[in-house]
Amino acid sequence: MRTIVISAVNLTKGGTLTILRECLRYLSELSETGNYRIVALVHRKELANFRNIEYIEMQWPKKNWANRLWCEYVTMKKISVKLSPVYLWLSLHDTTPNVLAEKRAVYYHNSLPFYKWKMKEWLFTPRIVLLALFSKYIYRKNIHENTYLVVQQEWMKRALIHLFRLREETMIVAPPSSTDKKTDDFPMNNLSEEGNYSFLFASYPDSHKNFEVICQAAEILKEQLGIEDFKVYLTIKEEDNAYAQWLFRKWGKIPNIEFIGFLDRKSLYEYYNQCNCLIFPSKVETWGLPITEFAAFHKPMLLADLPYTHETASECNQVAFFNPDDPHALADKMKRLIQGDDRFLVTAEKVIISLPVARSWQELFNILLA
Asked: Looking at the predicted structure, is the pLDDT value of residue 189 above 60?
């Protein structure tokens, strides 16, 4: 019997937790048909509880890097010895633990080493700046000991090869699976009131998400161009963090902007269905899942003109790209949509992904276990 270990101790919310759940869901099924023992190192078993999985719970204080690194390089080494022989050890959180295993792999989903931050971000989200500055040095340790590295996009593959001098054949591109909800799950209606054209940006208020370019564009539309018949919905609240507080102080009085706060998945899809257009201005992402989710509704999307958006929106219809540092460029495209002019929207070019590619967890593990 071959032992597969999944280490994912710091995956507790959001998209990374979804990755953990999808991974263990597949391995739970694999263990029923194959001769495999599956062990998962997690924060809490309840976060991703599936049959046929052995769980080891490991908890450290939130955002405590000292404890995390001790766990990765000391505690996990001891665990790997106890579980020996381990056939495959897959780390789902960027770092390569110091373990004994015949094969080792890491799922890399942190794009911040490639983020060009600004000085003002030290005031709003210093954690983002520190991650951008130092995470590449932490992730460098042991990275060449891996049999494979898994990323979500071709641009990330190329960036990591350049940053860490990796061999191309060790890199697997594994795009996230398509949205799990169907557009016909929702009644056809519109959030717009009195003819207002509605825009949505759904994200947590980290500084690299670039909420301010949308706020600036909305201000230009209202104050400089005199356009009133539009609404912008942002999924943040003033109390979220210092960055959200700054956004609210500067643009909270603009009536066309509504700070609606965090949305659960059902509510988020209702907004997808009801809003006219998605804006996605983030300056760096490993994927940009809202783009994939919103594309299923076949409505306009205004996207930051960056490698990740071109890849995520590959072959999507009704797309336009804008300079994420230019609110006037964004305001111009918003204005044209508000006035009913969508002639500038295009079908995004297809992005070619080099092999090996895994478009499902089954395909990924077929490669990892071969």
From this structure: no
